[in-house]
TrEMBL record:
It comes from the Bacteria. It holds the Pfam family TrkH. The chain crosses the membrane at residues 32-50, 93-117, 157-180, 221-244, 256-279, 325-358, 379-402, 435-459. Coiled coil: none annotated. InterPro entries: Cat_transpt. PANTHER family: KTR SYSTEM POTASSIUM UPTAKE PROTEIN B (PTHR32024:SF1), TRK SYSTEM POTASSIUM UPTAKE PROTEIN TRKG-RELATED (PTHR32024). This is Potassium transporter TrkG. It is found in: Cell membrane. It comes from Microbacterium soli.
C-alpha cells in the first residue's frame, strides 16, 4: 500500500514540476524563444561533436562544436574551424539542415513549440508569432490581443515562411548549378554546392562548402550576382516577401514596414558601395589592382555582404581602417525585421532617423509615407539600439582583455557576430576557448536578444489611466 502511495506521490510531483516548467517557459515570449533556440543549439552541438561529423573521424572539441552550432542555428557564418575541410559529409549536412532551421526564425519555431506543448496557441505564443515572420505584423506598433489571434494562425505563418524559403532557395540552386559548372566546378560537386550556396545566401549565413570559399569566384560576376540576390531576398524579411508576392505592382498597398525596409535597404546598399569605392580605390591589396568594372562589382558585393551575407572575395584584414569602420556600421544595422539577417534591423534605423528629423523640424509627430509612427515603436527601437551597443561594448572589452589582440580587429568580429554576418578580420579562428564562448554568447544574444527584447517590450506595454506631473531634465 505504501509503495502504491509513494509511486502516486512521485507521479503527482513530476506532473506538478512539469506544469511549473511549462508555465515558466510559456509565460514569457522572450523566455520561450530563448529556451527553444538554446535547445536547438545543444542538439546540434551534440551532433557536431560525433566522430562521424568530422572528416578525420575524431570527436570535435566542445568549444568548436558549440561555436559552430551557435553560428549555424543563429545563421551567422563565423567559425573557429575550416568549414570546408574539418567537417565530413555528415557534418556538412547537419550544418545545411541547421541553417535552414535557423533561417525560419526563432519565433516561428517557438510558436510551433508552443503548439506542441499546449495543443493550442496561448497568448504568449501568439505574441511570438506576431513578432516575427508574420506578414500582418507590420501594421501598428504594440500588438493587442485581438490582432495576435489573427497573427498567430500557425497555418498561414508556416505557409508563408516555408514556401518562401523553398521557392527562393530552389530557384537559386537551379540558377547556381550551371553558373558553378561554367565557373569550373565539377558537375557532380556542383549538385551539392549549388543548393548549399543557395541556402547559405538566402539564410544570410555565409558558410562555403569548397576550399577557398567565394574568393575562387571573384572574377565570375554571374555567381556573385546570384549570391547577392539570395542575400537580398533573405535580408528583406518574410513580411516584405509576402507583401511583394501579393501587391508587387501596387505600391500604394504596400505596408509602411515594407516601404521603410525596401527604401532603407536600397539606400544602404548604394551608400555602402559608394563608400567602399571611395575608400579602397587606391588600396593595392583590395581594389587598387582591379579595373573599373571589377572594382564596381566588388564594391557592391562587399556592401551586400556586410549587411549580413557573410561571403567575401577580398580578405577583410586587407581593408583600410576607414573601410572596416564603414563595414562595422553596416553590419550593426543588418537587414530587415523578421528576416534571416541580423543586426538592429533597417526599420529600426529608419524609424529613429525619421524621429530625429521630425524633432529637428519641430514636428509633434513622427510621420512617413502618409502614416504616423506611434511613440511605442520608437521606444522599442531605442531599446534595441541600446541593447545592441551594450552587447558589442561588453563583448569587445572581454575578448580584447582575454586575447590582447588589436581592439579594431576584435570590434570588427564582435559586430559581425552580433549582426550574425560571418565576416572576420581573422580574429575568430584561433580564439582561446574562453574568448570563443564569449563570441558565441554574442552571436546568440545578437540573433535572439534584439527580437525577444522587442517582443517583451510590446508584450509588457499596457495603457495607463493616470499621468504623473511633468518635469524636464536637461538633455544634451
Amino acid at each position: 500500500m505504501s509503495g502504491t502511495l509513494s509511486a502516486s506521490s512521485s507521479r503527482s510531483g513530476l506532473h506538478l514540476a512539469a506544469r511549473r516548467v511549462k508555465h515558466v517557459i510559456t509565460s514569457s515570449p522572450s523566455r520561450f524563444a530563448i529556451v527553444v533556440f538554446a535547445a536547438l543549439i545543444l542538439l546540434f552541438t551534440g551532433l557536431l561533436s560525433l566522430p562521424i561529423s568530422s572528416s578525420d573521424g575524431t570527436v570535435t572539441e566542445l568549444s568548436d562544436a558549440l561555436f559552430t552550432a551557435v553560428s549555424t542555428i543563429c545563421v551567422t557564418g563565423l567559425s573557429t574551424v575550416d568549414m570546408s575541410t574539418h567537417w565530413s559529409w555528415f557534418g556538412q549536412i547537419v550544418v545545411f539542415i541547421g541553417v535552414n532551421i535557423g533561417g525560419l526564425g526563432v519565433l516561428t519555431l517557438a510558436s510551433l513549440m508552443g503548439l506542441a506543448i499546449s495543443k493550442r496557441l496561448g497568448l504568449s505564443a501568439k505574441l511570438l508569432a506576431a513578432g516575427d515572420t508574420n506578414p500582418l505584423r507590420a501594421h501598428g506598433g504594440v500588438v493587442n490581443e485581438s490582432q495576435t489571434v489573427r497573427l498567430g494562425e500557425v497555418g498561414q505563418l508556416l505557409t508563408t515562411v516555408a514556401l518562401s524559403a523553398l521557392i527562393i532557395e530552389g530557384a537559386l540552386a537551379v540558377l547556381l548549378y550551371p553558373a558553378l559548372v561554367m565557373a569550373g566546378v565539377d558537375a557532380i560537386s556542383a549538385l551539392w554546392e549549388a543548393p548549399y550556396f543557395a541556402a547559405m545566401s538566402f539564410t544570410n549565413t555565409g558558410f562555403a562548402p569548397n576550399a577557398g570559399g567565394t574568393a575562387v569566384f571573384g572574377d565570375d560576376y554571374l555567381v556573385l550576382i546570384l549570391l547577392m540576390t539570395g542575400v537580398f531576398l533573405g535580408s528583406i524579411g518574410f513580411p516584405v516577401i509576402y507583401t511583394l508576392a501579393k501587391h508587387v505592382w501596387h505600391v500604394k498597398r504596400w505596408s509602411l514596414h515594407s516601404k521603410l525596409t525596401l527604401v532603407t535597404t536600397v539606400l544602404l546598399f548604394f551608400a555602402g558601395a559608394g563608400a567602399f569605392l571611395m575608400l579602397e580605390y587606391d588600396n593595392p591589396r583590395t581594389f587598387g589592382s582591379m579595373d573599373a568594372v571589377d572594382t564596381t562589382v566588388q564594391a557592391f558585393f562587399l556592401s551586400a555582404m556586410t549587411r549580413s551575407g557573410g561571403f567575401n572575395v577580398i580578405d577583410m584584414s586587407d581593408l583600410n581602417g576607414s573601410s572596416m569602420l564603414v563595414a562595422s556600421m553596416l553590419m550593426f544595422v543588418g537587414g530587415g525585421s523578421a528576416s534571416t539577417a541580423g543586426g538592429i534591423k533597417v526599420t529600426t534605423l529608419a524609424v529613429l532617423a525619421i524621429a530625429v528629423w521630425s524633432e529637428a523640424r519641430g514636428r509633434q509627430s513622427v510621420e512617413a509615407f502618409g502614416r504616423r509612427i506611434p511613440s511605442d515603436v520608437q521606444r522599442v527601437g531605442l531599446s534595441v539600439v541600446a541593447w545592441g551597443a551594450t552587447i558589442v561594448a561588453v563583448s569587445t572589452v572581454a575578448i580584447t582583455q582575454i586575447t590582447k589582440l588589436p581592439v579594431v580587429d576584435v570590434l570588427f568580429d564582435v559586430i559581425s557576430a552580433f549582426g550574425t554576418v560571418g565576416l572576420s578580420s581573422g580574429v575568430a579562428e584561433g580564439l582561446p576557448d574562453s574568448a570563443a564562448y564569449v563570441l558565441a554568447a554574442t552571436i546568440f544574444m545578437g540573433r535572439v536578444g534584439t527580437v525577444t527584447l522587442a517582443a517583451a517590450v510590446a508584450a509588457t506595454s499596457r495603457s495607463q489611466l493616470y499621468s504623473l506631473p511633468v518635469e524636464r531634465p536637461i538633455v544634451g
